[in-house]
């Protein structure tokens, strides 16, 4: 059972159908990225899941139960969507107060530990009105992590972060998913960062899901052989594209049989190269830009 399931979800504002019959899921320990042009519907989807806005139709299930009727489940979520803070309070006090205001009963992690994790340990006594946008993003991440969430919702978390901040964020996302089995759904326009960390990507266009797939789309496996592939061997390797000494294979699961066939005709594979279209190229070709 997926950790989170969005089923047939729609959201219309006055004149705009921002989400149209959206289905997506996030598994335990899975990192899923939402990508799509400005205005595609990413933030609307995240806000519906976070309980900030009500969908017009459809359903959201968390651990198999309808989320709309079980708002207490939101305590298991960590949410980073346009974070705002009380400007005349310092960073540490903001975290404590905001958690109480959100109705979180037990603050499991120490505020100082979390501030250290996001690289704000030297800023804990500073009033947030003096915080830059990037510092607010870091503090927003700290806020999202404070109650040891089982599910993380992050809206454009890379925006405004410097390279160190981005590296910290990527490490946190990977560690939360891989070691603590947190499910993570985030939106981003930073396709290189997305490509680096996510397990699955969902492309949204005009409120509809256009693509939903694992990150090994369009992978090609290039077997570099020690001699040219002759006509007889080409006939044996019917489904492969062959160029000189190279055999190009579309699916990893076919590699074993191809290795065996090559071995049978006395051809050795001396190197294996894996090529993949970049997420940016994919996005462009799918009409994302
Ligand atoms: N409060 C609102 N009132 C009316 N229309 C809205 C509102 N919020 C969003 N929209 C519209 O809904 C559509 C989806 O917007 P949304 O913010 O979800 O897109 P997005 O994919 O997050 O975009 P971006 O990448 O620019 O953040 C857009 O057409 C937007 O103009």
From TrEMBL:
Keywords, sorted A to Z: ATP-binding, Nucleotide-binding, Transport
Coiled coil: none
The keyword Transport is annotated on this UniProt entry: yes
Name of a matching Pfam family: ABC_tran
Keyword field contains Transport: yes
Matching SMART domains: AAA
Domain ABC transporter span(s) in chain numbering: 4-231
Signal peptide range: none
GO MF annotation, one: ATP binding
Record's protein name: ABC transporter ATP-binding protein
Taxonomic source organism: Variimorphobacter saccharofermentans
């Amino acid at each position: 059972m997926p950790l989170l399931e969005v089923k047939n979800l729609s959201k219309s504002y006055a004149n705009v159908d921002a989400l149209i019959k959206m289905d997506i899921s996030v598994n335990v320990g899975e990192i899923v990225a939402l990508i799509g042009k400005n205005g595609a519907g990413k933030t609307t989807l995240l806000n519906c899941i976070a309980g900030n806005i009500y969908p017009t139709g459809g359903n959201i299930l968390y651990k198999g139960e309808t989320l709309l009727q079980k708002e207490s489940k939101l305590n298991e979520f960590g949410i980073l969507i346009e974070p705002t803070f009380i400007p005349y309070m310092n960073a540490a006090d903001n975290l404590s107060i905001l958690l109480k205001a959100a109705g979180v009963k037990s603050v499991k992690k120490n505020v100082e530990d979390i501030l250290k994790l996001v690289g704000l340990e030297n800023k804990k006594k500073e009033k947030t009105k003096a915080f830059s946008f990037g510092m607010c993003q870091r503090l927003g991440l700290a806020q999202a992590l404070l109650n040891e969430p089982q599910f993380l919702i992050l809206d454009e978390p890379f925006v405004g972060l410097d390279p160190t901040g981005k590296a910290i964020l990527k490490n946190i996302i990977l560690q939360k998913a891989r070691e603590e089995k947190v499910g993570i759904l985030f939106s981003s326009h930073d396709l290189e960062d997305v490509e680096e960390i996510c397990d699955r990507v969902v492309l949204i266009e005009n409120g509809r899901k256009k693509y939903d797939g694992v990150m090994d789309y369009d992978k090609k496996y290039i077997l570099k052989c020690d001699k040219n592939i002759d006509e007889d061997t080409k006939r044996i390797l019917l489904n492969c594209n062959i160029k000189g000494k190279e055999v190009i294979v579309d699916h990893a699961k076919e590699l074993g049989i191809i290795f065996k066939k090559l071995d049978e005709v006395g051809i050795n594979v001396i190197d294996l190269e894996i090529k993949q279209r970049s997420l940016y190229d994919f996005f462009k070709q799918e009409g994302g830009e």
